[in-house]
Amino acid sequence: MLGSALTALWLELSASAITYSASVRVDSRVRSNEDPAQDAPSIAGDTDFTPILGLERTQGNTTLELNYAPRISLREVTAEPRTEVQHVGRFAARWRPERGLSFRLSEELVLGSVNLLTMDSLPVLQPDPDDPDGPLRPPPGGGPLQPLPEGDTVYFLSSATSLTGETSRLGRRWQLSGTAGFSVSGGLDGPAREAVPMQYGPRMDVSLSHALSELSAITTSASTTHARFSTGARNTVVTLTESWTGRMSRRTSLEAGAGASIVHSIEATGGVAPDPEPGTPAGTPRTELLPNLTLAVGHRIPSRTADFDGRLGLRVSPFTDRLTARVYPRADVTATGTWVLSPRVRMSATAGTAFAVGGATGDRLVSGGLTASWILNSWMSVDADTRGTWSRSPELPAARFQWAAALGLSLRQTGIL
Predict the structure, then answer these.
(1) Higher-confidence position of 146 and 372
(2) Measured between alpha carbons, how far is 156 from 119 in angstroms, rounded to an integer?
């Protein structure tokens, strides 16, 4: 009996594969200093140390992935040095019970001191120069750009849990997917919540895609989100959209979408309420019907010396300002471009602007950045990054401009346990 159990255990372990990745990243940065002190220098310097550990186990149709990346920051090394720590973790489980059916469960957690002006709210655990990220850059799909808090560093918590299912069993050209999740993010203590209010709530979306041909497809999507804020505000957004994607040629692709969103919101009327009573309205409820429009074009210019892949997108949709909890229609215009100068050298540029439309008032943002990556060998790479953001808020008397430039070194090792 014992022999049979040991044999079964050995066969179970031998059928699975566990891979690991261990890396460390060191970044040195200079940036504009937002310290309000009278004798504070206008330029500050930071140094970040980020060790990253990743484990992945694959067994049959199941894959488990675990990553942990604490970020240790020595802030303002040239003036008044202080140490800040940020813990970043991610867990993902993928299961394919049969062909044409898959599930994915994921959890991303950030806890600690987060600088929203110069750092990414969710640092990339496996850096990819092609993937623009962070609150100052537009995501790959375009927008939204987030307003900036008055303070540069907050004690922050972010947790995003989601379960996604996909199936193609409805037909050869049909794809059905759905996601359910719950998110919590914002400042943990009083001063942090004044800068970035805590928000939490569920979200759900479902989409049905049909391939019209090998070059085009239409997708019907429905989604709903509900968010409550520590200020007492809350909102519910229900969206229905119809979109079309297609390739006009081997180098050019287009995306267009239209829909509408029903927004039911209650804005906070007073100061910050750390723990408002559930069900207690903080203001007058409002229900609005807002447009949801998307238009994007992508183009690639193949070349042996400078292969280029770019995207220009326009999106008009309801936007939730995470700093004030207001919901208003906003336009986001984003542009991204990547140049592959060689198999080891890449450059990426991002630019974007965001502004309220339809007579609404809100922040206006203009952001841009440039990133270069040089892969020296299989375990070492060098990255350079510059970014800047100009913002104008109705709540502030003057516009603000923040900039940062960083140089980083990454060391990485992978293997099989």
Answers:
(1) 372
(2) 12
- Tell me if 264 sits within 8 A of 283, measured CB to CB: no
The alpha-carbon radius of gyration of the chain (Å, integer) is 23
**Residue 412 structure tokens:** 């990485």
- How many angstroms separate the CA atoms of 208 and 143, rounded? 23
With 0-12 / 13-18 / 19 or more C-beta atoms within 10 angstroms meaning exposed / middle / buried, residue 369 is buried
* Chain mean position to CA 96: 26
Q: Is 118 helix (H, G, I), strand (E, B) or coil?
A: coil
Sign of CA dihedral 115, 121, 122, 127: negative
Whole-model pTM: value is: 0.81
Burial bucket for residue 147 (CB in 10 Å: 0-12, 13-18, 19+):
buried
Smallest CA-to-CA distance from 183 within 91, 263, 109, 79 is with 109
Max alpha carbon distance in the chain (Å)?
A: 78
- Two tokens, residue 155: 């004690």
Nearest to 295 by CA among 244, 355, 365: 244
Write phi, then psi, for 300 (nearest 5 degrees): -125, 135
- CA–CA distance, 323 with 371 (Å, rounded to integer): 28
User: Distances in Å between the alpha carbon of 129 and those of 90, 352, 398?
Assistant: 20, 18, 34
E-only strand ranges, 33-168: 43-59, 62-68, 71-75, 82-98, 101-115, 153-167
**Cα–Cα distance for residue pair 46/115, rounded to 1 Å:** 11
- Give the whole-angstrom CA distance, residue 104 versus residue 211: 23
Provide the residue count of the chain.
Answer: 417
CB atoms within 10 A of CB 105: 16
pLDDT score, position 279: 46
Give the closest residue to 290 by CA, choosing from 318, 265, 264, 266.
318
Q: Smallest Cα–Cα separation from 404: which of 368, 355, 373, 375? A: 368
Which residues sit opposite 223 in a β-bridge? 205, 239
- Looking at residue 77, the DSSP 8-state letter turns out to be T
pLDDT digits (tens, 9 = 90+) for 41-84: 788 888 989 999 999 998 889 999 999 999 898 888 777 788 88
Containing 4, the helix (H) or strand (E) segment is helix 2-14
